[in-house]
Design goal:
heterodimer; A: about 120 residues; mainly beta; 7-stranded mixed sheet; 4-stranded antiparallel sheet; 11 strands; B: mainly beta; 6-stranded mixed sheet; about 0% helix; globular
Chain lengths: ~120, ~110
């Protein structure tokens, strides 16, 4: 089973709201990722967690706050977002076996976020 | 020069055609090469990955890598309307960050019945 699930599928929020995106995988992967994808663009890496610890933060604004409660779950907390943050937010996971992890990334279906 | 160049298309072909999708890259440190398929409003789906020059086949899909020319291709045989999607090439440098993929911009493919 190579499934990564994400909730919600769609989210509309105002600039003063606080919301969270959730991601779950049961493949035993120990690396999990958040990406942002704008229309007609490739995904852009935001954060990487390895063994539940934040490994990479691609200079993402603090209004995005990731959290990895356990090896299967990844959250992205959103607060005071701007309209330009509207995008498809993708979660991915990959193995952590000492080899290159990047090529084994499996993506979820994404959460389509609209900030008004 | 961008690290990965991919013709954005759009590419429109009749059903049954052979499709060729291509990417070129400039970073000789890239050693792993992936192709993702992304349907409209969905997440990318890993189609194939390879790390050596030559061909890798999986059903109707063949991934080809030429490291000497820094050129990769994805061939789709007997294309079907269900193949209509955006195809993204991606690459990684195992000597750099083991987590980072460098994507092409994606090619939008439409297969007409």
């Amino acid at each position: 089973d190579t499934e990564v699930t994400q909730t919600p599928k769609h989210l509309v929020m105002g600039m003063t709201n606080k919301k969270s995106l959730k991601c779950e995988q049961h493949m035993g992967h120990r690396a999990m990722y958040w990406y942002k994808q704008k229309a007609k663009k490739p995904p852009e890496l935001m954060f990487v967690y390895s063994y539940e610890k934040l490994s990479i933060n691609e200079s993402v604004p603090s209004r995005f706050s990731p959290e990895c409660p356990n090896s299967s779950l990844l959250n992205l907390h959103l607060h005071a977002l701007q309209p330009e943050d509207s995008a498809l937010y993708l979660c991915a996971s990959s193995q952590e076996d000492g080899l290159s992890r990047a090529e084994t990334q499996y993506f979820g279906p994404g959460t389509r976020l609209l900030v008004l | 020069q961008k690290e990965v160049e991919q013709d954005p298309g759009p590419l429109s072909v009749p059903e049954g055609a052979i499709v060729s999708l291509n990417c070129t890259y400039s970073n000789s440190a890239f050693q792993y090469f992936m192709w993702y398929r992304q349907y409209s409003r969905k997440g990318p789906e890993l189609l194939m990955y390879t790390y050596s020059s030559g061909n890798k086949e999986d059903g109707r899909f063949t991934a080809q890598v030429d490291k000497s020319s820094k050129y990769i291709s994805l061939f789709i045989r007997d294309s079907q309307p269900s193949d209509s999607a955006t195809y993204l090439c991606a690459m990684s440098d195992p000597g750099g960050s083991n987590y980072k993929l460098t994507f092409g911009k994606g090619t939008l493919l439409t297969v007409n019945p």
